[in-house]
Amino acid sequence: MGLLKDRYCIVGVGETEYSRNSGRSTRAMAVEAIRKAMDDGGLSPKDVDGMLSYHQNDSTPSLIVGPDLGTRLNFWVDMIGGGSSIEALVGIAMGAIEVGMCRTVAIFRSMNGYSELRIGGTGARGAAPVRGQDLATRPYGMSSPGQAFAPSFMRHMCDYGTTSEQVAHVKVAHSKHASQNPKAFYKERVTVGDVLNSRWIVKPLHLLDCCVETDNATCLIVTSAERARDLRPRPISIMGVAGRVSKPRSDFAFAHGPLSRVAGYYAKDIVFPMAGIGPEDVNLTGSYDAFTFTTMLQLEEYGFCKKGEGGAYVSSGIIELGGKRPNNTSGGQLCEGYTHGMNLVIENVRQLRGTADDYCPGWAEGKHSYDYSPGKCRQVKDVEIAMNLGWSRPETGSALILRR
Amino acid sequence: MPNVEYRGMNLIVPENDSEWREYLKMAREHRLVMRKCSACGLLRYPPGRGCPWCSTLGWSWQEVSDKGTIHSYEIVAQAIQPGFRDWAPYPVVVVELDEQRGRPTQDEGLRMVGNLVTPDFRPEGEENVAIGQRVRVLFQDLSPEIALPQFTLTGEPPEGRLWRLA
């Protein structure tokens, strides 16, 4: 079991609106999200002396954001990265506090992912010059995340008989969850038919197999269990973390292994022993939904079902609210908003506190109806342990296990 | 080596590109080459600095045959890069070359990404794209100094059963 198990906590979470026209800077959004997370945790500017962010040259650095919040930083890093960064940064925050570099760390991601630098790769990204290792893929019209990941899913379909219809259930489930989430960008429930009838983006992916692109900032705050005891909200304990675990031949993912094998195959052997639990102990998952199939591939690798049976697992009802182990109960990145993973962790924190911000009048006091019809409740009953499965690319992923 | 414009993209291969410059130059001579480790003898693609299996830095170029099998693919319906818009829908294929299949472990091989094209470099029709199809390299000259290796169907019987997205 891990040396630091349960010795660190997430004590504050916050985010801006999920929109496609923020009309403001990533600096302004970052300040709002961090301020909300500090208020949520009952933290003053003096309490926060560490800051971490991740970005793709599309954000504002910690040194600029920190003073806007009245903080003086003892530690900061702005790390290049997208998906799988947040879990890794939680682990890095724990380490920074453990060695005494700082006491409490705010981690943020601020992006105008639709109105400025589009996450799907259209616009400036698509027209960028090609050099170095990109020469292996981009001259062939393989540049966006969907284009880079699709062959992994295609091979899974070939080897295991997985169907478009099966993974469409991921979108169906997440849209159901989003319909109970006032913050979600897409709140409308969709059907399997809606997914299959949406236009092709890159076969085998339809439009509705792809995540939404949005503008937003998100933040969560990590501190020691000792300090967390004095704070207002119920601290959520970190049981285990694995950061940016990668397959061999991460220089060119197609070179190694079955193409449908993803990094969770390796990450599971770090995060589960650290937490001292197995997949059967997890009540709620946050499997990264850049696309419907990324959710499925990760659930398989972490052992929530057998390899090759992910299609059956995600279409069985297990991952829906009311099912045995719901996934991305906020609506995730297919529906709530795209944050490179932070909103999936924020949601699990709220679920573990029992205060999912749904349409129940008493959600803030943890009073829920558990009526999962549209526009009602999205709190899962009796959640003890939640897990995030972070995805960067097929060859790199992260994981985080939390408990209340 | 000057930069090359291809489909609206600037391909940048400067003199100090230790990995790609010679590879693309030899492609222009219509030779497909891989780096071969001087210690363990394994071939690697893309052209990396060290051997991924034994970490030896010594290597030499080795020409390989130009044949392989489609291992996976996708059909891009909505082009992201502006220069590909008039090409969509177009296939991108992951090809496993005949050399070194299943080595050094059964799940490895010399795999490359390319487009599946007709002999006159148009995107191959979707109905002809399938996992298991036999292909060979076709060099697409972009400048007097650079060519891109592409793939085209050989017409040979497929390897095992063909599979394509229904």
Could you characterize what this model shows?
- The complex is a heterodimer of chains A (404) and B (166).
- By secondary structure, chain A is of the alpha/beta class.
- Helix content of chain A is 30%, strand content 20%.
- Chain A is built from twelve helices and twelve strands.
- A nine-stranded mixed beta sheet of chain A has the order 3-2-4-8-1-9-12-11-10, sandwiched between helices.
- In chain A, helix 8 (264-275) crosses helix 9.
- The longest helix of chain A is centred in the N-terminal third of the chain and has 16 residues, at 26-41.
- Chain A is globular.
- The mean pLDDT of chain A is 97.
- Chain B has one domain (4-153).
- The longest helix of chain B is centred in the N-terminal third of the chain and has 8 residues, at 21-28.
- Chain B is mainly beta.
- The interface between A and B is large, with 46 and 52 residues.
Query: What's the CATH topology name of the largest domain in chain A?
Result: Peroxisomal Thiolase, Chain A, domain 1
* Number of discrete helical segments of chain A: 12
Shape of chain B: globular
Give the termini separation of chain A. 18 Å
Question: Biggest interface and which pair forms it?
Answer: A-B, 46 and 52 residues
- Strand tally of chain A is 12
Which stretches of chain A are poorly predicted, pLDDT < 50 over at least 5 residues? none
Helix content of chain B: under 10%
Offer a few descriptive terms.
heterodimer; A: 404 residues; alpha/beta; Peroxisomal Thiolase, Chain A, domain 1; 2 domains; nine-stranded mixed beta sheet; two-stranded antiparallel sheet; 12 helices; 12 strands; globular; B: 166 residues; mainly beta; five-stranded antiparallel beta sheet; 1 helix; 10 strands; 5% helix
Q: How is this structure best summarized?
A:
Chain A is an alpha/beta fold and 404 residues long. Chain A has helices at 26-41, 62-68, 85-98, 145-160, 164-178, 192-197, 225-228, 264-275, 292-301, 310-314, 332-335, 342-353, and strands at 8-15, 50-55, 75-80, 104-112, 130-131, 200-203, 205-206, 215-224, 236-246, 284-287, 385-393, 396-403.
